[in-house]
């Protein structure tokens, strides 16, 4: 049941026919897991909290460093040295105190990852390494949970949405190797607005999925060139022999 304050807070999205009161109720009752509270997780969490997603599971084991502040817009200079998940909980509460924020300040792997994925309705992969991305993907397959994965480096970003029944395959079908890429944002750099764009798109796709809004993004890898502002789209095909999703 939406309260009077809800109608005021979410009035602009309630005006959208695709959302309306029923969509807002779905958002309020949803649980979203954000795997990583860095450059992608920061804007994604801000927009999901602002939209009224009822429970946000905030997973990250890192402490805030000064080098993070160029792109991780959820944090402030005075918070350097603190746990990101704790700061994120405080700052998101200040934005929207009507939601539940759960800090998960440990590395998402093994039982911690599986428990967190099983507790969520939707998972956002905002991590920064291949091993974690593959682990998140495998856990989502095990627990039959939709996944929105994004990454960014330099001036380039990408976003992938996959969902049960995995007709288009999974992350491992597209990137079978778990070997770390030669170039990453730590050794090659990235512009802050670029990760902001990709994280915001993760939030957009999450809201669409949670509200039941039709999306054409499932099973497609969208590639963004931040210099030319051009997009390329690749259609994902399921690998019949994929060790992760072929048996699902």
From TrEMBL:
Signal peptide residue numbers: none
All copies of domain THIF-type NAD/FAD binding fold, residue ranges: 10-243
SUPFAM superfamilies per the UniProt record, alphabetical: Activating enzymes of the ubiquitin-like proteins
Enzyme class, spelled out: transferase
Pfam families: ThiF
Keyword flag Nucleotidyltransferase: yes
EC number(s) reported in the record: 2.7.7.73
Domain of life, source organism: Bacteria
An example Gene Ontology CC term for this record: cytosol
Keywords (A to Z) from UniProt: Nucleotidyltransferase, Plasmid, Transferase
A GO molecular-function descriptor: thiosulfate-cyanide sulfurtransferase activity
InterPro entries reported in the protein's UniProt record: ThiF/MoeB/HesA, ThiF_NAD_FAD-bd, Ubiquitin-activating_enz
PANTHER family with a match to the protein in the record: SULFUR CARRIER PROTEIN THIS ADENYLYLTRANSFERASE, UBIQUITIN-ACTIVATING ENZYME E1
Record-linked NCBIfam families: PRK05690.1
Similarity comment: family membership: Belongs to the HesA/MoeB/ThiF family.
Name assigned to this protein: Sulfur carrier protein ThiS adenylyltransferase
Phylogenetic classification of the source organism: Bacteria, Pseudomonadati, Pseudomonadota, Gammaproteobacteria, Enterobacterales
Name of encoding gene: thiF
């Amino acid at each position: 049941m939406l309260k009077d304050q809800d109608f005021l807070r979410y009035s602009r999205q309630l005006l959208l026919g695709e959302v309306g009161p029923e969509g807002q109720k779905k958002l309020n009752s949803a649980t979203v897991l954000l795997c990583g509270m860095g450059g992608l997780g920061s804007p994604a969490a801000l927009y999901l909290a602002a939209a009224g997603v009822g429970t946000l599971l905030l997973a990250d084991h890192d402490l805030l460093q000064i080098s993070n502040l160029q792109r991780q817009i959820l944090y402030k200079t005075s918070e350097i040295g603190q746990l990101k998940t704790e700061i994120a909980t405080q700052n998101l509460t200040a934005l929207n105190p009507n939601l539940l924020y759960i800090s998960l300040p440990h590395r998402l792997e093994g039982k911690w990852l599986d428990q967190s994925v099983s507790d969520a309705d939707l998972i956002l992969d905002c991590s920064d390494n291949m091993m974690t991305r593959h682990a998140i993907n495998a856990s989502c397959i095990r627990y039959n949970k939709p996944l929105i994965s994004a990454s960014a480096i330099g001036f380039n970003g990408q976003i992938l949405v996959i969902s049960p029944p995995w007709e288009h395959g999974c992350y491992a079908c597209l990137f079978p190797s778990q070997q770390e890429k030669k170039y990453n944002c730590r050794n090659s750099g990235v512009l802050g607005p670029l990760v902001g764009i990709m994280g915001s798109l993760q939030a957009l796709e999450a809201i669409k999925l949670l509200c039941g809004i039709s999306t054409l993004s499932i099973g497609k890898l969208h590639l963004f060139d931040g210099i030319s502002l051009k997009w390329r789209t690749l259609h994902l095909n399921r690998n019949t022999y994929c060790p992760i999703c072929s048996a699902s």
